[in-house]
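Purpose: get a first structural picture of the assembly so the mutagenesis plan has something to point at.
Setup: two entries, given in the order below. No constraints added.
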Amino acid sequence: LAKTTQPISMDSYEGQEVNITCSHNNIATNDYITWYQQFPSQGPRFIIQGYKTKVTNEVASLFIPADRKSSTLSLPRVSLSDTAVYYCLVVQGDSWGKLQFGAGTQVVVTP
Amino acid sequence: EPEVTQTPSHQVTQMGQEVILRCVPISNHLYFYWYRQILGQKVEFLVSFYNNEISEKSEIFDDQFSVERPDGSNFTLKIRSTKLEDSAMYFCASSRSRGQGREKLFFGSGTQLSVL
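Result (structure tokens, whole complex):
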């Protein structure tokens, strides 16, 4: 199972772009990279998922280089409501929804 | 957006008592899960459930735990004899499919279980 490493915390101001980089050196061929967001006292919420290159949705972008040993979640123009913990997960192709959460990155957005 | 609903939001129980945590997964989802998060710690996988059977379970999910889908809408987690260390936020989740690593889990807001 690929271990992930991401910063413990990041601070940002409203309106800025936040980029969180996650390393997963031991990612396997059939693994996917998935990011979840968690607010206090709530369950994790799926943000975005990718296998390689770039994925974009209405919330974020995910950049994955060709070697797939890292990924970067990009949150454009953050607001105060983006203050949350962000988890980078490597999900095995044969998982039965067994997600391995790490400590995540606490993002704090201030005015 | 459809939601996973969990009840109750808070449950207080005495050590040794049985508790049942309830969840209503998203209606067209087929795969169901329980996770837990002890205060200040990581979200931990407990069990996955499909077609009325456990698909996978973690080491945490011992004989004190059981899951059931008693009808077409509810999914429950039972802890037979609660311990102090069972105090945690319990999250139910569901997914439409098992997507070879691409499944998107929808989590409920959780039940905060406090064992006294």
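Residues 19-92 of chain B form a domain with the Immunoglobulin-like fold (CATH 2.60.40.10).
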